[in-house]
Design goal:
The protein is of the alpha+beta class. The protein is built from 9 helices and 15 strands. The protein has 2 domains: about 100 residues, no CATH class; about 160 residues, 3-Layer(aba) Sandwich (Protein Transport Mog1p, Chain A). About 25% of the residues lie in helices and about 25% in strands.
Length: about 300
């Protein structure tokens, strides 16, 4: 594979490799293409670091190799793609955050399936007859009572985001997508411009216990409780305040919590904390409510 190579070009699109990484340029807008290591999921990353995940899609390296050999590729739904079709689908899906391949393929309208492919089942309809996308902006919860409790502590440097598990993913994947949603909420302004650049595709995580998440403050250890109680500018917040916030976030207790602790080298958000104070990024799946709480912190004096 050449480090820089065009696989397809027309009056609108350029599809190829830039320094060995697949990319698409659509009307001058460039998108980096990558894939999830654990599932067939296509990532489309824009110039600001905003990412769309297209589930059950393609490994872009495989796709570009096929197009280089004048071959087509077929999606899991049975649609057959040439290079221009692929470009159209990626352009349509960009900026949608988190969708499935069948939703991205709406750009084509009604299309012929590849021969001998089974018919795709109709999307489940709502009682009013409308067909709703599998995921939408409602995945981020904005009106939970916990936010009112958090607002009582304006000097806290911790950012919280509550995310519904609309995709019903379990384990690492579910946590990863919750983090994607939180970044779209916390790192992007109302004009869809990145406040902090980020690339969640570079984030990695390890499973930790709920006891480790809520562990006491300990010398030489930066953890969630320490981030709340000891920001760069000291507050008078106490352990009781920390417990009050977490009781609101996790009203059914901690027995059903699954926690992942994430690396923090994938966004400008964490740059200040890397200077000396510390950084924090955790996703918590409350299985009793089937929702996630994303907890992040980074600060400097």
């Amino acid at each position: 594979m050449k480090k820089n190579n065009e696989v397809y070009r027309d009056e609108k699109y350029v599809l190829g490799y830039d320094d060995g990484k697949p990319y698409l340029t659509a009307d001058g807008e460039k998108y980096t293409l990558s894939c999830h290591p654990y599932e067939p999921c296509l990532y489309i990353t824009d110039k600001n670091g905003g990412m769309t995940a297209v589930h059950n899609a393609f490994d872009p390296t495989y796709v570009l190799r096929a197009f280089s050999n004048n071959q087509t590729v077929t999606s899991i739904t049975g649609f057959e793609y040439n290079a221009k079709d692929f470009c159209r689908m990626v352009e349509y899906a960009a900026d949608m955050v988190n969708i499935t391949i069948d939703y991205a393929e709406r750009v084509f309208g009604a299309r012929e399936k590849k021969k001998n492919e089974p018919e795709k089942k109709e999307t489940e309809k709502q009682p009013d007859g409308k067909i709703e996308p599998r995921l939408g902006t409602e995945s981020v919860v904005t009106d939970d009572p916990a936010y009112k409790i958090i607002a009582e502590y304006p000097d806290s440097v911790i950012d919280y985001c509550i995310v519904n598990n609309d995709n019903k993913d379990k384990g690492y994947n579910g946590h990863w997508f919750a983090l994607v949603w939180a970044c779209r909420r916390l790192f992007v302004d109302d004009d869809d411009t990145a406040i902090w650049r980020y690339d969640v595709g570079k984030a990695n995580a390890k499973l930790i216990s709920a006891d480790a998440l809520f562990a006491p403050v300990k010398d030489g250890v930066f953890n969630y409780r320490k981030a709340f109680l000891h920001p760069p500018y000291e507050t008078n917040y106490k352990n009781a305040d920390f417990d009050k916030i977490n009781a609101a976030l996790f009203p059914n207790g901690t027995d059903k919590l699954e926690v992942y602790e994430w690396t923090t080298d994938w966004s400008e958000y964490f740059d200040e904390g890397h200077e000396w104070w510390g950084t924090l990024c955790c996703t918590v799946h409350d299985k009793s409510l089937d929702r996630f709480v994303v907890i992040m912190a980074s600060a400097t004096d």
